[in-house]
Amino acid sequence: MLMAAAGAYVHVVLRLFQGGLLSLLGSLALMAWLGMTPHSPDTEKKRLAILSGFAFLTGVGLGPTMDFVISINPSIILTAFLATSVIFVCFTLSAMYAQRRSYLFLGGTLMSGLSLLFLLSLFNMFYGSALLFKAHLYIGLALMCAFVLFDTQLIIEKAEMGDKDYIWHCVDLFLDFVTIFRKLMVILAMNEKDKKKERK
């Protein structure tokens, strides 16, 4: 989270790197490299360095969204971060204290939901509907909250079966957190923008 915050700071404040296609490709490449590097005591430091680079570039990638939010109301960023933290903690605790494996059945449904969202976004690229865009945001937010439940229980099950790759498990939960944060920022910014239009 600190590396992602540093990446966002570099984009928003220092303007040394600009988030966009290159930062996206870079973060995907680092995530693939991390996934292909086996977990062992010998590679632990190397994998932590790759994780840090991935988180940094992910933070840089958040920059354009944060620029948009800051132009409307900078306080939205803090509100979205606090809301994301509360959501993440609540859903994680729910998964931890729920009956074992009770949320693992969601896997197929969640992947189908992601596929549907992808098709919806492709369709809306040509159709350009504001209503579909908002639906995509809210459905995506609900899906990512469910992913926190699913991923937390899946990580617990993997750990019980001997998979102690905490670095890759961290990637799963980090992506959930960042996606929820991004969607909340956009939703709050759009709501604030609509309120300003109503006042005028």
TrEMBL record:
It is found in: Membrane. Keywords: Membrane, Transmembrane, Transmembrane helix. Signal peptide: none annotated. It is a multi-pass membrane protein. Pfam families: Bax1-I. Its main location: membrane. InterPro entries: Bax_inhibitor_1-related. It comes from the Eukaryota. The chain crosses the membrane at residues 12-36, 48-69, 76-97, 103-123, 135-154, 166-190. Belongs to the BI1 family. PANTHER family: BAX INHIBITOR 1, BAX INHIBITOR-RELATED. This is Bax inhibitor 1. It comes from Huso huso (Beluga).
